[in-house]
Amino acid sequence: MSTSRKTVAHILEQLEPLDVSPHPMFGEYCLYCDNKVVGFVCNERVMLSPTSASDGMPEAEAYPGSKMYRVAGEEIVEDSRRFRELVTATAALRPARKPKKKSTLPGGADYPHCRGRVSAPLRPPHLRLSVLAVQCRNLATDGSR
Description:
Elements: H1 5-14, E1 20-25, E2 28-33, E3 36-42, E4 45-48, E5 59-61, E6 68-72, H2 74-78, H3 80-93, H4 125-142
């Protein structure tokens, strides 16, 4: 069962002054606060990342096979002050997002099969063919040996 937009809107309303944004994922939502993942909204429930801020809260899987998350019950979500404090504390204890790695390859392109060994810009395909044609012609003329 996926989470309704109405539920997510209510959660955002409860957290209103905070910089919280939901990102849809597989019919559910990932919650970001200050650009850090603080939890999920799954099956109409708020599931927070386990931190010392949420010690003592009941735990459950966000989806079958996931790690355990702390379930913010209805009484916590409805108490907006307490809910904001919990989300803020969780965000403060979560690691910052890792910056994306910049490509070191020519033109900023990403060639995973080269693994960073490209030292000169790659030739466009039409030039690669013409170089191959010249090499073949040289082999054909030198093939009389």
